[in-house]
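Module 6 notes. Inverse folding takes a fixed backbone as the condition and produces residue identities as the prediction. Think of it as a translation problem where the source language is geometry and the target language is the twenty amino acids. Below is one complete input and output pair. Work through it position by position during the lab.
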């Protein structure tokens, strides 16, 4: 029996298999509102047969958007627009759906990737950005505003409000974004956090604000709703955030009721040196799983079905996530199930697509005609 296609529980939520669709920014919202693109994109992902779909990084306040086109969940309009998309997904798919709540910090106010991805100045329609310290992401950029305690409390309350909206929408779980150089990661990393108060300096101090955000979100939604986190396991920089600090952070999160950890890496500095290659982040997921006991998601250049199977079967991670791989092949779980001799769920409208000789790929389904 395929381990990749075995069920797995995250808190009170049971997934039909271990394949997770990782959050993928689409840069296609209008004032934070989901659009028809999200209906098409997320609808496609929801028919893929994966165990869990995580909606892209969703800003908890306008200033927390990476780009002006980021999805948001700070207003009634944002909630209403996303509700339409969720309703459509629920009508045709029973796949659990999560959302990644985020604040871009000093990496906010950027152009979309296809427009270069660089900082938009306030003179050109951008906005002031916020960070733990007044240190820019790139040399020569405008300085972000170092958050004072009032600003930090505002952001906590905006995460809480977005979490409550998430629950209102009937979504299944929340992933807190603390990776890729965005605000919560900026507090964790000594590369971006040069504060001298109780939120900077020591590891305990640098973890303080991200832990406060997580605790507030955990308290804002019912205990039955799993809440997890995405982290960068390392900055890939000497003297930066690393996997050993991540383990300490993970154990602190576990005490707060964290239900899973999604292990990525990098994003804090353009000076990072990432050794890209198959499974390059998996050892960090394995260490987090072993040393924290948290259900763990491995992600990053996992595109081969047998490789994904081995990661789960060998105990390196409990789940595997794909992002670009799902964009390239929205039916990757189908193809993986076919290769591994497993079964996967598909909508009845697609049952006739089972390849010859794989008549049980979609389970005990029957079709007929006259």
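Target side of the pair, the amino acids:
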């Amino acid at each position: 029996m395929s381990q990749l296609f075995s069920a797995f529980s995250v808190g009170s939520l049971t997934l039909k298999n271990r394949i997770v669709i990782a959050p993928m920014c689409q840069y296609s919202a209008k004032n934070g509102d989901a659009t028809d693109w999200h209906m098409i994109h997320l609808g496609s992902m929801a028919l893929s047969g994966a165990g869990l779909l995580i909606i892209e990084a969703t800003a908890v306040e306008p200033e927390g958007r990476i780009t002006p086109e980021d999805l948001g969940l700070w207003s009634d309009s944002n909630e209403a627009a996303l509700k339409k998309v969720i309703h459509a997904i629920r009508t045709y798919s029973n796949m659990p759906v999560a959302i990644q709540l985020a604040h871009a910090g000093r990496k906010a106010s950027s152009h979309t990737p296809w427009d270069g991805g660089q900082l938009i100045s306030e003179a050109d329609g951008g906005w002031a950005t916020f960070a733990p310290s007044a240190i820019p992401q790139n040399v020569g950029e405008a300085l972000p505003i170092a958050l004072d305690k009032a600003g930090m409390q505002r952001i906590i309350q905006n995460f809480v409000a977005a979490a409550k909206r998430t629950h209102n929408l009937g979504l299944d779980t929340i992933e807190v974004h603390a990776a890729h150089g965005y605000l919560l990661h900026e507090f964790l990393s000594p590369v971006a956090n040069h504060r001298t108060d109780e939120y900077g300096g020591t590891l305990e101090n640098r973890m303080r604000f991200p832990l406060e955000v997580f605790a507030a979100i955990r308290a804002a939604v019912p205990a039955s709703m799993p809440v997890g986190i995405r982290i960068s396991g390392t900055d890939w920089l000497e003297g930066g955030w690393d996997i050993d600090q991540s383990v300490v952070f993970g154990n602190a999160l576990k005490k707060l009721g964290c239900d899973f950890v999604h292990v990525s890496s990098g994003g804090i500095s353009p000076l990072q040196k990432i050794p890209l290659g198959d499974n390059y982040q998996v050892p960090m997921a394995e260490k987090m799983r072993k040393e924290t006991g948290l259900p763990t998601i491995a992600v990053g250049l996992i595109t081969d079905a047998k490789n994904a199977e081995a990661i789960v079967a060998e105990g390196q991670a409990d789940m595997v996530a794909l992002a670009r791989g799902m964009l390239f092949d929205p039916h990757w779980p189908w193809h993986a199930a076919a290769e591994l001799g497993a079964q996967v769920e598909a909508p009845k409208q697609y049952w006739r697509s089972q390849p010859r000789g794989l008549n049980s790929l979609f389970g005990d389904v029957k079709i007929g005609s006259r």
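Reference fact for the lab report: The mean pLDDT is 97.
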